[in-house]
Write a structure and sequence with these properties.
Oligomer: heterodimer
CATH topology of the largest domain in chain A: Rossmann fold
Structural class of chain B: mainly alpha
Order of helices and strands of chain B: HHHHHHHHEHEEHHHHEHHH
Strand content of chain A: 25-35%
Helix content of chain B: over 70%
Number of helices of chain A: 17
Bound molecules: adenosine-5'-triphosphate, magnesium ion
CATH superfamily of the largest domain in chain A: P-loop containing nucleotide triphosphate hydrolases
Radius of gyration of chain A: 23 Å
Number of strands of chain B: 4
Distance between the termini of chain A: 51 Å
Shape of chain B: globular
CATH architecture of the largest domain in chain A: 3-Layer(aba) Sandwich
Largest sheet of chain A: 6 strands, mixed
CATH class of the largest domain in chain A: Alpha Beta
Number of helices of chain B: 16
Chain lengths: 509, 351
């Protein structure tokens, strides 16, 4: 690809971009300017229009107005092919891989190396292997079906695909949402390599510390409009949050009132829980009113433990006792009846009915509570759903909207909302804040605290160690399917936890 | 069951980065078997089971009629009877892998067979008859494809419409009569042998080989899997999903045209009643072969074996003079068992 632009030159200018969907003006005149060789961060609340903007840039959405200038020339991007051809590659927020195809086939999907229509498979695999090595993961077999990889592995494939295009501009829409700390480092190393070669990166994330680490300039979008551009990436958090939401959020982790844990009342008792090849001999308790966090790398077996407690996976051995009653293994209805709720990790595949309304999704686990003599009380459903949406700042707070049309972070809020309208005794939260913006995140933390204060036992899994430490009373550390250690959160530091999950060294704080 | 052990052995040399990603894999694969399966192996396992079923059926047939069942003439008869549906099943496999369905294949066979045997067409000689069948099949298939891809009709509806109207048109063209083939050249070739093997069986083999290469070795084939597996991802990757979808239905139609050649050769006539229930038999063969009806996964070899299983069952029943009602019940049972088998493996795949 010819280098017509020097690092620092303006590569892309989007001005006055407008995009409307039925009933929403997602973009209402957004401006964005990206220079070659920079990491340009896009910030904004959930539903601000970030993903919509980059889909316009990727040719996946057609704008209703505005102008796109690429390397000094006005351009229309009529299709994804057109965008790829000029050198814009995109990693979408929602993974866009084909489960049934291999890693290599996914990486080269749409531009397979071929001779007379025959795919050059050897060549394709060799190239794919090179890309995986560049991403620091030569051990992922390029012939393996993508559906069999973990979420982080899939994210890497998606990244490799963007690299395979030899692009001038790579858009990354929340690439780290599914990644653990070490993977994030890996990604940033690749980003640094790319920018050194003059490739521009548009980077979207709700984790401000990441923006501080790799970002050069920041553009803030609010309600479909650019409210600030050309900001330094070290702009103080308070100012950024204020620009994004117009609100003031002092601390992300709200102060926790004196621990109200009633340690005499163990609500959830798990003993010797084992599933062959996933995790072994996991035992712990959660008291009423307590928040227990599980830290560990992706693949450590945390989600599997949660799903097994919930009965979505059947334990090979071990017991789960809720409020003194032993749960039948592998039986979700029994767990739900006993007052257990699970907000699962994969919102799209595990939690949401995408084509149904937000209200239907929110009340899904509480239908009996919302019916009289078998008939649904739709008015009450809508009312309660709306109240929960407002609490979580889910936008637009219209319970009748189809979930599919919500932004990623707002879909995540709908997943959590399901268990807020129901009185649970035990709440299992798997990555509850994945993709949720800073302001809403603080609100969600406050809600979790309130739930605990009302006596709910909360078990939380999160890949963000600060979140685990900041939110929990007690922390369990898992590695390779085993429980390594258990300690009060106040006695642990982020570094100590990271050490434990990665190396397994016996450091205790 | 050594997965946990394997996991740590992966970790040691590579140290921290990556270990957990590769180590995650056994979690997703079948915990019930506990075997690490590289992609495809599980399908192969199913193919082995299917082949086993096929062999068992052949043995049964042999035991019941030791003199005739595996005789050259019976095998050749079986295959010639199965050839047309076999070819139709190839097209059906493409359609189902791409995430669609084609209910109109039987009607397209009928239409092609009638159109190629009208007096007018026959007057141009055997090669024009062949060309006519292929063009009619391809054309009808493309109409399906365009309606589905560009007209946004659901495959079920679009092909249901073709199911009704193609046979209707065939009836009209033929005036409801059976049109006998007068072109001796046509019959000589297609009813003849090539190196001692009937032409029809050669055609079946060639269609399968070409179909296999197209599906597994070409960009077109791999994109068919992609569209069936995740249409949105395929679109965003820059694949022209609409054109591709239209072409997949075109292939199904073309296969029907080829099948019409075979049916006409076998029955020495074209008729609007040709190809009755082909759609059911073809879908059954594809499903028994392990292709997911939801798209994105499947094999042609499975379809071939699935079709052969039906053929052998048919032959066993006719050779032993059993009623066709029992035969249909047996077919139903086979479909259910095959789908249960498929359900089991699909469940292991995605926990
Ligand atoms: N296909 C669609 N149909 C209708 N509305 C849509 C569609 N896609 C997005 N929207 C709406 O457009 C607005 C912007 O959504 P977008 O996905 O761009 O937000 P975002 O900034 O990426 O948020 P997040 O941080 O949660 O990912 C939202 O109000 C969303 O509901
Ligand atoms: Mg988004």
């Amino acid at each position: 690809m010819s280098t017509e632009t020097e690092p620092g030159d303006v590569l892309l200018t989007m001005s006055g971009i407008v995009k409307t969907f039925p009933g929403v003006r997602a973009l209402d005149g957004v401006d964005l300017e990206v220079r070659a060789g920079e990491v340009h961060c896009l910030l904004g609340q959930n539903g601000a229009g970030k993903s919509t903007l980059i889909k316009v840039l990727a040719g996946a959405h057609q704008p209703d107005g505005g102008e796109i200038v690429w390397q000094g020339k006005p351009t229309t991007l009529g299709s994804p092919v057109a965008a790829l051809r000029i050198g814009v590659a995109t990693m979408y927020q929602e993974l866009d891989l084909v489960d049934g195809l291999s890693v290599a086939e996914n990486i080269f999907l749409g531009h397979e190396p071929n001779a007379f229509g025959f795919t050059r498979r050897g060549h394709m695999r060799a190239e794919a292997r090179k890309l995986m090595r560049r991403l620091g993961h030569p051990e992922i077999p390029v012939g393996r079906e993508v559906g069999l990889l973990s979420a982080a592995g899939q994210q890497l494939v998606s990244m490799a695909r963007a690299l395979a295009h030899d692009a001038r501009l790579i858009v990354m829409d929340e690439p780290t949402a599914a990644l653990a700390a070490d993977e994030v480092d890996n990604l940033f190393r690749v980003v640094a390599d790319l920018t050194a070669e003059g490739v521009a990166i548009v980077y979207i994330s709700h984790r401000l510390e990441e923006i501080r680490r790799i970002g050069n300039r920041v553009t803030v979008i609010k309600d479909g409009r650019t409210v600030a551009s050309n900001l330094d990436s070290h702009t103080p958090t308070a100012e950024l949050v204020n620009l994004m939401s117009g609100r003031n959020v002092e601390t992300v982790f709200p102060h926790r009132e004196a621990n109200t844990t009633d340690s005499s009342h163990e609500v959830l008792v798990v003993e010797g829980l084992t599933r062959a090849s996933e995790f072994a001999d996991v035992s712990f308790t959660v008291n009423a009113g307590e928040i227990v966090g599980i830290a560990g790398l992706v693949g450590a077996g945390r989600s599997e433990v949660l799903e097994t407690v919930y009965g979505a996976r059947k334990a090979d051995s071990g017991t789960v006792v809720v409020d003194g009653k032993r749960l039948r293994p592998g039986n979700v209805p029994a767990a739900v009846a006993a007052g257990v709720g699970l907000a699962p990790e994969e919102r799209k595949s595990q939690a949401l009915l995408l084509d149904q309304s937000v209200a239907n999704n929110v009340v899904l686990a509480s239908l009996p509570e919302y019916s009289r003599a078998g008939f649904s009380d739709i008015r009450r459903e809508l009312r309660d759903a709306r109240a929960t949406l407002e609490r979580l700042d889910l936008r637009p707070a219209d319970p009748r909207r189809e979930v599919r049309t919500l932004s990623g972070g707002n879909q995540q809020k709908a997943v959590v909302a399901r268990w807020l309208v129901r009185d649970c005794k035990v709440l299992l939260l798997d990555e509850p804040t994945r993709g949720v913006d800073v302001g809403a995140r603080a609100e969600l933390y406050r809600l979790i605290h309130e739930l605990a204060a009302s006596g709910v036992a909360v078990l939380l899994v999160s890949s963000e160690v600060p979140e685990v430490l900041g939110l929990s009373d007690r922390v369990l550390v898992m590695r390779e399917g085993r429980l390594l250690t258990e300690a009060p959160a106040s006695e642990l530091t982020e570094a100590a936890v990271l050490d434990m999950v990665m190396e397994g060294s016996e450091v205790m704080a | 069951m050594s997965d946990v052990g394997e996991k740590s052995s992966v970790d040691k040399p590579g140290a921290a980065p990556g270990g957990p990603l590769a180590g995650e894999e056994p979690v997703r694969t079948g915990p019930t078997t506990g075997v690490r399966t590289p992609s495809g192996l599980r399908l192969d396992l199913r193919l082995t089971i299917l082949t086993g079923v096929l062999v068992a059926l052949c043995v049964t047939g042999y035991v019941l009629q030791p003199d005739s069942f595996l005789s050259e003439s019976n095998v050749s008869t079986m295959l010639r009877l199965a050839a047309a549906i076999g070819v139709v099943s190839v097209g059906m496999t493409f359609v189902i892998i791409s995430g669609g369905i084609d209910l109109s294949v039987g009607s397209m066979v009928a239409l092609s067979s009638v159109w190629m045997t009208t007096l007018a067409t026959q007057s141009y000689g055997p090669w024009v008859m062949v060309l006519c069948a292929l063009v009619v099949g391809l054309g009808a298939g493309l109409i399906n494809g365009v309606l589905i891809a560009y007209g946004r009709l659901v495959p079920f509806i679009a092909t249901l419409a073709m199911y009704a109207s193609a046979r209707g048109l065939a009836e009209r063209l033929s005036d409801g009569r059976t049109q006998v083939v007068e072109q001796q050249g046509y019959l000589d070739f297609f009813r003849g042998d090539l190196f001692g093997i009937p032409t029809l069986i050669w055609m079946l083999a060639v269609v399968y080989v070409v179909g296999w290469v197209l599906l597994n070795r070409t960009t077109f084939g791999r994109r068919t899997f992609a569209i069936g597996g995740n249409e949105e991802a395929a679109r965003l990757a820059g694949i022209n999903v609409k054109r591709h979808t239209a072409m997949v239905y075109g292939i199904a139609g073309l296969c029907c045209g080829i099948a019409a050649l075979m049916v006409v050769a076998r029955t020495t006539s074209g008729s609007s009643t040709n190809g009755m229930y082909y759609e059911l038999d073809a879908i059954a063969a594809v499903v028994i072969g392990g292709t997911l009806l939801s798209g994105g996964r499947g094999t042609l070899i499975g379809t071939l074996i699935g079709g052969l299983i039906f053929t052998v069952v048919n032959s066993i029943f006719t050779q032993n003079n059993l009623e066709s009602d029992i035969q249909n019940i047996a077919k139903g049972v086979i479909i259910v068992v095959a789908v249960l088998l498929q359900y089991g493996t699909a469940r292991n795949r995605k926990t």
